[in-house]
Amino acid sequence: MKLLSYNMRGLGRKEKIREVRELINKLRIEICCLQETKMEVMNTKVCRLIWGSRPFDWSHQDAEGNAGGILTIWNIEVFQKLSEWSCRGMLVVNGLWVEDGSRCTIINVYAPNNPAQRGVLWETIEALADQIRTDKVCIICDFNAIREVNERIGRSSFCDKMDMDNFNKLIDGNDLTEIPLVGRSYTWYRPDGSCKSKLDRLLVYSNWLSTWPNVIVKGGKRSFLDHIPIFIEGHVKDWGPKPFKFFNQWIQHPSYKPTMEEAWKGTSRQGWTGYILKEKLKDLKGILKSWSKRTFEEMEHLIKEKKGEIEKLDLVDDAFGPSEEEEAARRQEIMGELQKEASWNEKQLFQKSRIK
Q1: pLDDT in 10s for each residue of the chain, 356 residues
Q2: I want to staple 79 with a disulfide (CB 3.0 to 4.6 A). Which of 74, 208, 324, 337 is the partner?
Q3: Do residues 281 and 267 touch, judged by C-beta distance below 8 A?
Q4: Whole-structure pTM over 0.90, yes or no?
């Protein structure tokens, strides 16, 4: 499952259509939700310019003059529409998820800037929620609202507490879950950089998470638009189990523990707890593989070096007689080190030979 949400601030310019089309093709997006198309009439030609050559269907809530406009486009091989419904600021598409035949509802929202009008929209979403609660439901949108004061900073960053309370009530009172945004803290930026806010979000019901428990929401790079693209992906390949060979003798190596402790403390990630843990483990895996390769290569080099030293001492003995006490002690020290390194190396080779 791969979704894209993007506030376009109008689709009248070719560079904007090119911008979203490149994202759709590059990421193989399956459902695309666009806000603020500012188009009073949408047609298949424009949708094809946006989507590309893959099979698709679309629904659009027409703009009122030069305001609003909501467009949802999807791959018909992934999602098949059964019905659609819209009101001011919201486009609802209900259908079947082809992979498992389950009912799925995609709600694409562009909330009004006016708090009173947003309140009316919140009431509409609450009423709709009771009717579609059994479906897999996701609400992808530009809510034009914040949940906390720290989600808006900069000049003229007034925060209406009542507006925030009403928005939080909509989410908490309807058992909706906001999937945390990864990679970015804000989704809207004033062109001059004087203010920024987190306005775009993904809200889901628990039955959506039961199908896509590993859903992740990422903020993309900002271009010439004031909003950033939002990418939603379920069944992320990086989350799946990947074979990783861990050799027990690593733990016995003196540099193992300090290397791992330093690596764990040295990696930093932002996002929700599960994502942070996954990313830190992925970083640790790479560091552990590099450490093992470096240590193993150094060990083979040390074994070869110790063997060379012993051979030199043996040649000296052959030429000039038995070694003096100091040289004998050195020989014994080298033999002990060689035996230790060879034993550790043998354990590693043995365990590798048991893994196919």
Answers
A1: 899 999 998 888 888 999 999 999 999 999 999 999 999 999 999 999 999 989 999 999 998 888 889 999 999 999 999 999 888 899 999 999 888 888 899 999 999 888 899 899 999 988 887 777 667 888 887 888 888 888 888 866 567 888 889 999 988 888 888 998 988 889 998 877 778 899 999 998 877 887 888 888 999 888 888 899 999 988 644 444 555 666 776 777 788 888 888 888 887 777 677 777 878 888 888 888 888 777 777 777 777 777 777 777 667 666 666 566 666 677 677 777 777 767 666 666 665 555 54
A2: 74
A3: no
A4: no
Strand pairing class (230-233; 177-178): unpaired
Residue type, 68: G
